[in-house]
Amino acid sequence: MVKMLRIISVFCVCLFAAASAVPANLILRKLDPALRYQHERDSIGQYHLVDTWMTLSDLAEVARYNPVTDNVYHLFTRENPTVSQPMYVNSAGLLQGSNYSNGRRTIVIIHGWRDGPISDSVVALIPAFLAAEDLNVFVVDWTAASNSINYPAVLSNTITSGLAVGQFINWVNQVTGSNAVQYHIVGHGLGGHQAGIAARNVNGEVAYVTGLDPSLVGWINHSDRFGPDDGSYTEVIHTNCGVNGYIADLAQVDFYPNGGESMPGCDSHACDHSRSYFYFAESITSGGFTGRQCVNYLAAVLQTCNVLPGTLQMGGLRPKFGSSGVYLVWTNASPPFSMD
User: What is the pTM assigned to this prediction?
Assistant: First the structure.
């Protein structure tokens, strides 16, 4: 009996020691191993020191967000260009009683971190799209997740929201008879990566996917980042690469206006980051912005694209099927930004 008690006592001591050695907040995922703490600017221009590693405590916040029920999809058309018709997945009555038409192409706009459905990016894009063509425009409101200061949780929820957006599109198509070919998905910042995630989860191949300065922090080694095969035609516009935006090429076609980092007329990185959607909005209505083909993205960043003769229009309303490569674009410091 004494021997047994000694064995139990030793076992308990070892168990306590092992438990004490386990960190209180386990590291679950290291997306940027060399740069754990980084300053990241949100979509309203504020800097935050963020921990890019996912820890055990982050899971509690992640679990509180259910994109299937929390996301709202605001429909705008030429019949209601300024006041949205809110939609929810599986609410067929709302969809069937709305101004949605399966005879139109459909645009899906996804905002970024600590942004929302009335953000500058959304306000710039909706009127540009509706002025250019009679369209259905859905604005994805995922503020239930994007408003948090907890960057690892928001980054994780970017992925689950993207999956939910893809499911919403599948549901709309099932109810209305629309199909993936009619869709153009656009996202800014974190929403840029989410646009790719959403598109790759749609049944069928989405015609056009645009990333507007997709985020850098947390995405360097992330397998779910925007990819060239997320749609039939994919395009990224880099305006603050290496700071707020992803530096390397991500899509079939990547444009680097003014080298991709500092934009003429801007005096802050927030301004640079926002230029992506202002340039894109202008391209929808004007069709301007001729890009010069570069050997690779480093040549675009260094603004040394004087070898290849190819040119391509940046942005625009329609996908440029079959196009590929990296392009350098020059812009004006104020509207109209296009030099064409």
Answer: 0.86
